[in-house]
TrEMBL record:
Residues 97-151 form the HTH cro/C1-type domain. It comes from the Bacteria. Residues 8-77 form the HTH merR-type domain. The keyword DNA-binding applies. This is MerR family transcriptional regulator. Keywords: DNA-binding. Pfam families: Cupin_2, HTH_31, MerR_1. PROSITE patterns: HTH_CROC1 (PS50943), HTH_MERR_1 (PS00552), HTH_MERR_2 (PS50937).
Amino acid sequence: MNSNRPVRYKVAEAARLAGVSASTLRLWESQGLVVPSRSEAGHRQYSAEDVARLKRISWFRAERGLNPAAIREALETEDAPGDGGELAVLSGIGRKLRSLRHAAGKTLEQVSADMGMTSSTLSTLERTSQGVSFKTLHDLADYYGTTVSRLSGEERDDVPALIRSGEWRAWPETTPGVTVQLLAEGKTMMDCHRFVLAPGAASEGAYRHDGEEFIHLLSGRLELVLDSDQFFDLSPGDSLYFESRRYHSWRNRHDGETILLWINTPPTF
């Protein structure tokens, strides 16, 4: 038995430690106050940090009488990083989205209403950099007047001109099954990415932006749709060039991984 394995609590155990019912834990999850991990069988699993968060939620509710929205804001204030602890609390893209929301003076409820998403989904994204479709991530970046590439940190100054094969830095995996690896970084005139798509991975909606894009399929099979009525079925070796202003959506139609090069210019994605 591995004694170094982190402790994971089941729903009933976590509820008992927090002094609430299991149904209350499920309610708090639906409200975006806590997001437990899942076992391979799909069962909720709470870490020691999750249990500590549950106890704080319970205290805010019982002792201060706060509603879910106020509890979220109170927890965010407590989570505010200091003295180099930022990356331990928030992750990559989610951290930057939260900073942009605060700079705009907006609450989770205001942004989620504007974007047509639930506040719990937005809260999960800001805390974990996960849980939204590729389209939603693009739309959020556009909402804040930035790009997904900037959110990923591609415009760093301390980047090498040469990136060796297999040494690509990757975005946080915001969308399940979609891995985006950076083939070039810095303040460039092109976004140069290597997409690795799991079977069935998709944009889950169409999006558009300024610029032009080039796709070259390395392996697998990709379906790309332009303006909802022009369909392209790409096989290995195929290339496609189109204006980014056209609505585009995509899906891996292969029963294995699909890998492609994807270039945008100027860097507007």
